[in-house]
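pinging the channel bc i need a second pair of eyes. not urgent but kinda urgent?? the chain im working w is below, pasted from the shared doc
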Amino acid sequence: MKIATFEMRRFLLIPVTCLLMVLMAMSTTQVNAQTIKLPSDLSVGNDPKQGTSTSTGSTLFCAAASGFTLKSTTADNSVTPAVNYTSWAWSELDPAGTAGALPAGTATATNEKLVVTSATPGWHTYQVIASTGTAGCPADPVLFTVFVLPDLSITSSIDPSTPSLTYCAASGAPTGANAITLKSAVSFATALRTITGLRSLAVTNFDLTYVWTKEDLATGTKTTVGTNAATYTVDDAASSTGGAEKKYKYSVQVAYTMKTCGTYTATTQYNSTDATITVTPKPGAPTITIE
């Protein structure tokens, strides 16, 4: 009986262990696949070794405005009375995660402050070691991590196989195989700086907003026709209203959901030129006279 009980426990232990491993793997996959919508999505418990040092957005910057100042405390407050620090040694982690020299011309350390005038897109982890006494006895190093969003590069196009960019208003916009579908493609304008241990990110990891705009070339009037989708299919309803033929151009504006960093816009192309969609109103019926 005892042997049977032992065998049963061993039999149960193996599947449970495997199940735990599978669940852990699934959890890791879900974290890696997480769509980044909020500044807090770049923070992992405010741990600078795993993400940004805050979850409030104060450590998230746009490429065009990536200047900030870091300030160390000036005294060791873990003891009473507090002991003032006498020096601070600042450094930045390189892509391998090793503390190295500050980037020349863009980061300047003065005692307890580090002034960064511009940081390149991607991860940046800074380290400070504060010391006390005339012997300069160092405390443990402290890390601080920020993230700089890169500019976006946008293109928009209509598949060259689309039969025609013209249609009669009385029939409405073409559908099915003849539909006029506008597509956008988004990429980082520059490569991201990486650091070992921090997430490797692609543009597909970020939640983006899309706004499609239609411009009347005769009047210059612009109208929003689609939002929150990377594609837009022209869907004008049938109209029997007469008038002159109209020509339109379309464009798309893309932005990060988590932070407004700028206007990234592309005019839709067709065979490498600005796509012009022509709509011909239904003409009035002619009259017949006898001569």
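so The CA atoms of residues 5 and 11 lie 10 Å apart. and Helices lie at 2-32. — does that match what u expected or am i reading it wrong
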